[in-house]
Amino acid sequence: xxxxxxxxxxxxxxxxxxxxxxxxxxRDEHPYCIKCYENVxxxxxxxxxxxxxxxxKDLSYKDKHWHEACFLCNKCRISxxxxxxxxxxxxxxxxxCYDAQFASRCDGCGEIFRAGRIDTxxxxxxxxxxxxxxxxxxxxxxxxxxxATAAKEQEKFRCHLGMDCRVxxxxxxxxxxxxxxxxxxxxxxxxxxxxxxxxAIGTKSFIPREQEIYCAGCYEEKYATRxxxxxxxxxxxxxxxxxxxxxxxxxxxxxxxxxxxxxxxxSRDEKPYCAECxxxxxxxxxxSCTKPITGxxxxxxxxxxxxxxxxxxxxxxxxxxxxxxxxxxxxEQDVICPExxxxxxx
Length: 346
Known about the structure:
It is found in: Nucleus. By secondary structure, the chain is an alpha+beta fold. Among the domains are: 24-102, Ribbon (Cysteine Rich Protein); 104-114 and 178-223, Cysteine Rich Protein (Ribbon); 237-281, Cysteine Rich Protein; 289-345, Cysteine Rich Protein, CATH 2.10.110. The chain has helices spanning 34-40, 95-102, 125-133, 151-156, 216-223, 275-281, 338-345, and strands at residues 24-27, 30-33, 58-61, 64-67, 85-88, 91-94, 120-123, 140-144, 178-182, 185-188, 206-209, 212-215, 239-241, 244-246, 265-268, 271-274, 284-285, 292-293, 301-304, 307-310, 329-331, 334-336. The chain has a four-stranded antiparallel β-sheet with strand order 7-8-9-10, with no helix packed on it. Strands 1-2 form a two-stranded antiparallel sheet. Strands 3-4 form a two-stranded antiparallel ribbon. A hairpin with a 2-residue loop joins β3 and β4. The longest helix is centred in the middle third of the chain and has 9 residues, at 125-133.
């Protein structure tokens, strides 16, 4: 203090009480008695709401202040002086209590991401872009900043568990330690694996289903559409018959094995047959030409008693005119028109 006072004029800047022979505090070159200084300038403790006097240590964090004895974990009440701590909703917690209540946990093993305090960066940008272009699902890979670019951050890093750090060294940032993230879920790299074969997914494509993660191979094995005939996976194309999937090459005539994909066919006893085999095996036969009457393609036919004819074959045995839609007379195994029947009787 470079100013000089008469002893009678050396007074508190606030209350004008003499400071001669008394303890005082300078603030902006002005002297204050202890009482006025604490009333005007001292901070209030966040915990006990009492003034933090000049004889007490003032601990501050984010514009809040505590007596040294009041700087405690909000949960377990352990002192946080000279210890790492975390804050949430304007409350402070020791490392263990903060982790137990708020720390991110792996969706695979349920353990805490212990090194979650250091800045992370996303890698594999080209892989992510390629996945988006191909409409694939991939997880975003995060890792601690490696090399010289992160030297300053790594120097500042301290595990909040301090001496209880599970790595063994509370200053260890382990560049390259990774965390996998997909939508709202996250895993340790080793925990982000196929739920069936347990193979690590890494940055490879995968398929999520009902909260589970599958590699492409296991998903196909478990859920992919399989041919009803050969039981193998249908990867492209395919044919559906009676709501069941077939490979095109597997969808064949039950009798001759010719492919029916894209061809006319019919069924018998739930089995598919090509037109030729169905006619040969099951169809009625024309009394006139003895060929099968399949009905495929809208073929029309005539039936009389236990005999059948194609429409085109149902003709008069004598004059060969069509009898479709006309009256006819049977003559033993033949059918004839009324005119020819009259002539035959004359």
